[in-house]
């Protein structure tokens, strides 16, 4: 299974909660010109990759994300999807997701997304409280969020994921709990937890180490509250920060966390591809340049806009696989890790595994699979690093 990711790197203003690469284009006339150039470059990039990868695997998922992908006009989206259908094998296609901002979620736009083939939305709601949204610098209001959710359901989107932000010092756990409860009460089928992180590089009033540690503990407690509340409401954490009711998980994300192939197009987009996965333990990873003008210029001359490319060895791949699978609800398949990646975790880390089981951080591996417990999920990074090959 292969996924396609589109990175749309434009916003009309800077946003503190968005750490992806984007360019601010506040003037609408200039934005229209930028979008036209950019969509042409995206189409060219898709065609270049199709020459090398289209015959390897069919495309099964599309995810349009970035800074503010809902700035794309419907004609742009229709053109890009037509390019995909013309140059890739989409015979087993199963999911198409569009990220959208509440302020862009008008009924005509959402209906247009449905009509061109999108069946899943990911919406940056962030909070249902105005002071939270003001703190985050979000351009929409709670009323915009509620309206956009209702409109998405009304035009036929059955699967809707919303981002809910948490973790800044002024946010109380009671407010966080209430935000999540509102999402549950509205019948949102999928919730993504978006952890706020301070911008240390630009913050002149850096917190003391003690204050930073205190905030880290608060964020861990808020994550624990979210896990308990959402699981009790029938959501499964199919990944550490992605919760969904049955049948509403993101197939695109599940492919990534299964270590599947995917191609990213657009500035800063990342790609990962298995060439002959069953024949050799090697895969290629590459990242695009982080500059819109350079990106458009290179593709105007039909040059791939790649900044970095790496062929990963088996140790790197085994480490990636452990990292990805331990973040999932299904967990890490030990026989797959041994047979495909050449790493026998039970033999290499037997004493550590026994200790983690005893401390209720992972399950007993007698099923052939290691999964983090609810307590273990709160310490996922540390546990994962200790289980990896050197």
Automatic annotation (TrEMBL):
* One BP term from GO: porphyrin-containing compound biosynthetic process
Which molecular-function annotations from GO does this UniProt entry contain?
4 iron, 4 sulfur cluster binding; catalytic activity
Give the UniProt entry's GO cellular component terms: cytoplasm
Q: Where is the Elp3/MiaA/NifB-like radical SAM core domain?
A: 1-231
Segments passing through the bilayer: none
Task: From the Swiss-Prot or TrEMBL record, give the protein name.
Answer: Coproporphyrinogen III oxidase
Signal peptide start-end = none
What InterPro entries does this protein's entry cite?
Coproporphyrinogen-III_oxidase (IPR034505), Elp3/MiaA/NifB-like_rSAM (IPR006638), HemN_C (IPR010723), rSAM (IPR007197), rSAM_sf (IPR058240)
